[in-house]
Structures are given as structure tokens and as C-alpha cells.
């Protein structure tokens, strides 16, 4: 596969930036663009739309392995995004429901650097584009599974992110009650679940806090109303306490904001 390397024709402004923060020149990024493998210094790559790039390595399903790789359809991205474990899949769900997230890509690039002893590389789990235009790198690893090598990789990734103004977060195991509720609501994440007339009725009913099933029944047949209700909870137009208990018929639901009728 062809590879395009960074050339001396890079903009003078990017060279000036590299002089400001040594990290801009200490790290290289390797990613794919239209099937072409590209390697550039970090200082010349910060403005790439990494939320649209393909993964830099394949997702594997080893026989007898302990990992569970797969593809998750993200409503935010309008396409499938890969994951390598249930923990990564759960984080995708949380990113997908976050109204502050507008784009997600998995394993968007290899980050290359030299740690003073040897060459190193790390592929972050996710690149996230935020609604305000900023970038965020997300690595998913349970706290009890971070060895010395992983800790060094996360520290280096954080340093690279700070150099270009991206956020960096390492996230672990989410709250189990919240995650159970979000896995359920994720079944109703697609826009086809939002029937406009039913949604408007539910938003009216839940202007005041109301038990979940009772409010759905006020709008009509719960077989029709409940999927729309769950979609509105997923999209944060309706709100419930998702951290203390599992969603149930008596869960209190209310509209997220005041509406004028």
C-alpha cells in the first residue's frame, strides 16, 4: 500500500509551531486517507478530520480469546465503529448518547515516539470530535489492567494531545446501573424510533414528573409509545435518574427543558 511521508514543503507556520513545543516534533502520526498510508509529524497533523478516518489496524476475533470484538452502529456517526472488548463497546454507547459528541472514530492513528531507550507506538481507542470543534482522545482500560507499558503509553499520549490542544482521557469501567440502562436505551437510538406525533404527545405529558408507564399510556398504546419514550430518553429530550435504579414502570420521567405550547 502506498505511503505518503511528510515533506519539506510543509507550511512555515507548522515549522514555527514545532519550535514552540518540542512534543510537536517528537511524535509522528500514521493514519489512512483514501486508502493511502500517511506518516506525518504531530505538528502537521492536528487539523486532520480524524473522526472520518478508518482504523489503522483490523479488529480480530481470535478463537478462544478473552476479548469480544465487534462493530457498533453509532447514531452520532451514522455508521459502524469497531471495538475490541465489551468495555470499549460500552464506552461507544456512552459516547453515542453524549449530545456534546458529533463524531467518533476507532483506532484512528498510530502515535509513534522514542522513549529514550526504544521506539514506541500506540493506537488510541477512539478519536472524538466535540460539538465545539475540539478533539478528544479516549483510551479505554480498566484501572486494574494498566501495567507499566500501558501507563507510559497513556502518559505519552496525554503529552501529545496537550501539544495540539486535544483533550485526553483514560476511562475505565462505567457505573453498572447507568450502563445497564444505557444498553437498553441504545436499542432505540435510531431516528426511526422518533415518531413525531407520539414524541410531541410524550413531551407534553412529561412536562411534569410522571411515572414512565403511566405517562406512556396517556399518549396511547404503550406498545407504540414506549419505544418513542426510550428514544427520547436516549436523546436527552426526556430525563430520568439512570444511575440509582434500573428503568421500570414507576421510574419518574420529565422533560429536559421548558417548552412553549
What does this structure look like?
There is one protein chain. The chain is α+β, with helices and mostly antiparallel strands and 261 residues long. Helix content is 32%, strand content 25%. The protein has eight helices and 14 strands. It has helices at residues 12-20, 23-26, 86-97, 148-164, 176-186, 196-205, 212-219, 222-234, and strands at residues 3-5, 28-33, 36-41, 70-74, 79-83, 101-106, 110-114, 119-122, 126-130, 135-140, 167-171, 210-211, 238-240, 252-255. The protein has a five-stranded mixed β-sheet. Strands 6-9-10-11 form a four-stranded mixed β-sheet, with helices on both faces. It has a three-stranded antiparallel β-sheet with strand order 12-14-13. Helix 3 (86-97) packs across helix 5 and helix 6 (196-205) crosses helix 7. The longest helix has 17 residues, at 148-164. It starts with a strand and ends in a 6-residue tail after the last strand. The model is unreliable at 1-19 (pLDDT under 50).
Low-confidence stretches: 1-19
Range of helix content: 25-40%
Category by helix and strand content: alpha+beta
Q: Approximately what portion of the residues adopt beta-strand conformation?
A: 15-25%
> What is the β-strand count?
14
Largest sheet: 5 strands, mixed
Mean pLDDT: 90
How many alpha or pi helices? 8
What labels would you give this structure?
261 residues; alpha+beta; five-stranded mixed β-sheet; four-stranded mixed β-sheet; 14 strands
Amino acid at each position: 500500500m502506498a505511503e505518503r511521508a511528510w515533506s519539506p514543503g510543509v507550511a512555515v507556520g507548522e515549522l514555527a509551531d514545532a519550535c514552540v513545543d518540542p512534543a510537536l516534533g517528537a511524535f509522528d502520526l500514521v493514519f489512512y486517507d483514501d486508502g493511502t498510508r500517511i506518516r506525518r509529524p504531530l505538528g502537521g497533523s492536528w487539523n486532520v478530520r480524524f473522526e472520518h478516518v478508518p482504523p489503522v489496524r483490523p479488529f480480530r476475533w481470535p478463537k478462544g480469546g478473552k476479548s469480544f470484538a465487534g462493530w457498533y452502529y453509532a447514531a452520532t456517526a451514522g455508521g459502524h465503529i469497531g471495538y475490541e472488548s465489551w468495555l470499549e463497546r460500552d464506552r461507544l454507547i456512552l459516547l453515542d448518547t453524549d449530545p456534546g459528541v458529533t463524531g467518533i472514530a476507532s483506532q484512528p492513528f498510530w502515535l509513534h515516539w522514542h522513549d529514550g531507550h526504544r521506539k514506541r507506538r500506540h493506537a488510541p481507542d477512539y478519536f472524538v470530535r466535540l460539538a465545539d470543534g475540539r478533539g478528544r482522545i479516549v483510551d479505554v482500560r480498566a484501572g486494574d489492567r494498566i501495567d507499566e507499558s500501558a501507563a507510559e503509553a497513556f502518559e505519552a499520549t496525554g503529552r501529545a494531545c496537550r501539544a495540539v490542544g486535544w483533550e485526553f482521557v483514560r476511562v475505565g469501567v462505567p457505573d453498572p446501573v447507568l450502563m445497564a440502562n444505557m444498553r437498553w436505551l441504545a436499542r432505540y437510538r435510531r431516528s426511526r424510533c422518533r415518531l413525531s406525533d407520539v414524541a410531541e404527545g410524550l413531551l407534553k405529558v412529561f412536562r411534569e414528573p410522571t411515572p414512565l408507564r403511566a405517562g406512556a399510556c396517556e399518549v396511547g398504546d404503550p406498545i407504540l409509545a414506549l419505544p418513542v419514550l426510550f428514544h427520547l430518553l436516549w436523546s436527552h429530550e426526556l430525563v430520568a435518574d439512570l444511575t440509582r435504579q434500573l428503568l421500570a414502570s414507576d421510574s419518574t420521567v420529565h422533560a429536559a427543558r421548558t417548552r412553549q405550547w
